[in-house]
Design brief:
mainly alpha
């Protein structure tokens, strides 16, 4: 598969990711409009633990699948990994149900509202279970280059989730108020967050059902020797994922609740503001996730060709250029993107968005760099890198949150992503050297960040001194001029590369 094909697949994955993320972004202002800040904080604290559970429940099997699957043994790898996940998910789900009481009585459980609404815990465990069971079927679609089916299932999942959110949070209360008291009193019992989780359960369950025809086609066999090899390869990836999630979600799940000063109400307000603005910074994550979906199987297949390092270097250059463009697209138009926050109450946290966007640039580069330890079977190296990053995250959040509040959490996240990117690059060049175009990569990143600071200085000094996030003709014109100036620079520098890509390539020839 060529870079052009990778780009084509990334476009398909990107469109599905954009559609699903936009539908999810519809839910963000929806939640912020109808939920109290306390409920917003509870929801985000609870959801912050789900990625941790997903990492443990899937224990790196998707990556191991890509590493070991070949045309002549794809079914063996599929069935072995699927049987392994089914058995482990059943055991883990039973254990989580048995641990319900100590979890909901913990400090984090109480902050997440699980003590007052224990049904939320049941829903969360079910979400984790369904997500684990669908991990390999999703990976199979990616491996077999079937982005359209992948996109269809992803979008169906999100549409179902949105539908039930609207049904439970708007429809049911409306009909209850009209006298249909056989429906639950969602508003009166203050259980909106539980119904958000229930909506997710129904969407995840539908996804699993949609994969059943695909699973029925498997020839169910289990290869113990293959399984041991896959487990040996994948287990260090649990540490990689867990430590990575320390930066990704522990700020809301642990660091902010633990280190923020003030009363519990003050903490809930800060977490709600931080979580709402964190959603804006994840706009850039749509592109990163789309790229990962297409790139991971591509990288493993490309490793079997002559001089794959040259291809990896070219991909990194294009990827960073696009990442930096996305950074500016979000950062320069924050005064527009803030409409997703709905209430002015959340606007005070907008300052963290550019900081987190920078962090996502470093994280995206890190994802590209990790190919060296995946191809050389040195996944333990990945574990070491992320443990260092996670340890740094604990230290920086302990240091900065009491001093800077939630801005300290955002800054700590970005610094940790930068550090793990640098370590991964230096270490990788020793064992799997790739001639990345460092002068260009550094230029693109520094220039993008510099343009943002220029925009911010002009905006605060001359255009909107009272409110830098107010929407004015002046700052919109300034943002547009700077954005398209950077875009023109990138296209000029990489015209040959972009001309080879589908869709946009025909406009550059």
């Amino acid at each position: 598969m060529s870079i052009k094909n990778l780009a084509g697949q990334t476009i398909y994955y990107g469109l599905s990711n954009i559609v699903s993320k936009l539908l999810n972004y519809f839910l963000t202002p929806f939640y912020l409009q109808i939920l109290t800040y306390k409920a917003v904080a509870e929801m985000n604290i609870a959801y912050a633990y789900v990625p941790f559970a997903n990492i443990v429940l899937t224990y790196g099997m998707e990556t191991a699948f890509f590493r070991y699957a070949k045309k002549d043994n794809e079914n063996m790898v599929l069935s072995t990994s699927m049987i392994s996940l089914i058995c482990s998910t059943i055991i883990a789900t039973i254990l989580l149900f048995l641990l319900q009481n100590p979890v909901i009585h913990s400090n984090s459980g109480q902050l997440a509202g699980l003590l007052t609404h224990p049904e939320s815990y049941i829903y969360l465990v079910m979400i984790m279970g369904f997500d684990a069971l669908t991990a390999i079927p999703y990976a199979q679609l990616r491996y077999e280059n079937r982005p359209l089916k992948y996109a269809a299932i992803r979008v169906a999942n999100i549409i179902t989730n949105v539908f039930f959110n609207v049904f439970f949070l708007i429809g049911v209360p409306y009909f209850y108020a009209k006298g249909y008291h056989w429906l639950p009193d969602i508003i009166g019992t203050n259980s909106q967050v539980s119904y958000i989780f229930l909506s997710n359960v129904l969407a995840s369950g539908l996804t699993f059902v949609m994969f059943l025809p695909q699973l029925r086609k498997l020839r169910w066999v289990f290869d113990k020797v293959l399984w041991k090899d896959m487990i040996s390869y994948s287990l260090p990836l649990i540490i990689v994922g867990m430590a990575g999630m320390v930066n990704e979600t522990m700020d809301r799940a642990y660091f902010l609740p633990t280190y923020l000063k003030g009363t519990r109400s003050d903490q809930e307000k800060a977490i709600a503001i931080y979580s709402a603005n964190y959603k804006l910074s994840m706009l850039i994550n749509m592109f990163i996730q789309a790229f990962k979906l297409g790139a991971e199987p591509f990288f493993f297949k490309q490793a079997e060709t002559d001089n794959p390092q040259r291809t990896y270097a070219r991909i990194m250059k294009i990827f960073v250029a696009l990442l930096c463009t996305m950074f500016l697209f979000v950062a320069l138009y924050l005064n527009v993107w803030k409409i997703f926050l709905r209430k002015p109450f959340y606007y005070e946290g907008l300052a963290i968005v550019p900081v987190l966007l920078m962090g996502y640039i470093f994280l995206g580069i890190y994802y590209n760099l990790t190919i060296w330890f995946k191809l050389t079977n040195q996944t333990r190296a990945g574990a070491v890198i992320t443990i260092i990053s996670a340890s740094l995250a604990f230290f920086l959040n302990w240091w900065w949150i009491p001093v800077m509040g939630y801005f300290g959490a955002a800054l700590a996240t970005t610094v940790c992503y930068l550090v793990q990117m640098i370590i991964c690059y230096v270490w990788g060049q020793k064992y799997y050297p790739v001639a990345y175009h460092l002068p260009k990569l550094i230029t693109y990143i520094v220039l993008a960040i510099g343009i943002y600071f220029i925009y911010n200085w002009i905006n605060t000094t001359f255009l909107s001194p009272k409110n830098i996030y107010a929407i004015t003709v002046g700052n919109l014109v300034l943002a547009t001029v700077l954005f398209f100036g950077y875009l023109a620079f990138i296209l000029r520098m990489e015209k040959k590369e972009f001309a080879r890509l589908p869709v946009i390539g025909k406009f550059l020839r």
